[in-house]
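Fold this: Molybdopterin molybdenumtransferase
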Amino acid sequence: MSSTIWSVDEHLDDILASVRPLEPIELQLPDAQGCVLVKDVVVQVALPPFDNSSMDGYAVRVADVEGASEEFPAVLTVIGDVAAGSAGLADDQVVGPGQAARIMTGAPLPAGAEAVVPVEWTDGGTGEGPAEGMRAHADAPEGATGEVRVHRPVTAGAHVRERGSDVEPGVLALAAGSVVGPPQIGLLAAIGCSTVVVRPRPRVVVLSTGSELIQPGEGLTGGQIYDSNSFALTAAARDAGAIAYRVGAVADDADTLRATIEDQLIRADIVVTTGGVSVGAYDVVKEALSSVGDADEPGSGVEFRKLAMQPGKPQGFGSIGPDHTPLLALPGNPVSAYVSFELFVRPAIRALMGLPDVHRPTARAELRADKALTSPAGRRQFLRGRYDAEAGTVTPVGGSGSHLIAALAQADALIVVPEDVTSVEPGTETDVVLLR
């Protein structure tokens, strides 16, 4: 481990300078969810592609229903049906004076028609009072013929979705850098795109180290604890947008750890380890990875560092394997591991995705606390807190111990105490990193 004390910003800058966005690939829409667009997507066809009805009703000419009422309805001749998915009326059919076409939601507006009268404003072709809905075509095919009485007038374009009213051809649908989520996939499908060029979601392998770790669900014996870090960090990687793979805890054996990591490289764009980076006699991550660099490959290998931060002083970063896969070695204490993930791993994942902004949002908030917060001189401290956006306040949750995972589960922000500040009085405005 280097004797140099790195700042938080120096360590992060070093990581981001070494991480390159993943190469673009073309994916089918369902596979592109969560990925980042590489190219602008321009609309090729209008949406909607034709004038269509927004209601079940009758396509009419405005002049034919002017002044219509229940007492004095406009009586129109029904010349046919226009269903959604159909081409409309026959080529030689036009809605002329005194005529109407029965039309369904989403169906193309027939030639000659200027508006749609909802079926509830008519007698539905029954010759009786206002209709509640249309009779099924299979049950009453004669509904597409005969007469319909219209009880209310409409204006031109009423209940008609005009061609291109959503987007016109040539318009930018989605800009490069957009994350492809469910609404974006819906838009892409609607304008006829079946594939998109994106940067794939990064594959993150997470593994814990420590002979004391066992899997949840098993019985604890003397000196054992449950492996929580690999679960929390795998979930955090997925939350950041990655495809994450959790590896069971690896015992404190350097050869086993090195072999496990090498086996995982085939499915990793980035590797995250937790534990074994401090100064103990059994801190095997350092032992296993300090000498993995290839002397013929500049920049390879993992460097272990001390950072001017609390929690999370011991950190490791470098690359491993033939593809120089980035590896971040985080401390083993649960809070240290999670804070380190948020500060260093999450930005690296977002950089691999090609996102322009890799950082969590921050805010200024007034500290609400019973007493002053203390912080060691020369270290940037990150304390768990609950942020109230409406009040503009943040309240500490739990103490500063790096093992206090219960408090972490209640926090939605990190309170940042700068390196040159040793005490923060209640009422002081401070920076907070928003975690949700």
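The CA atoms of residues 136 and 375 lie 74 Å apart. The helical segments are 8-18, 182-190, 229-239, 254-264, 284-289, 334-353, 405-410.
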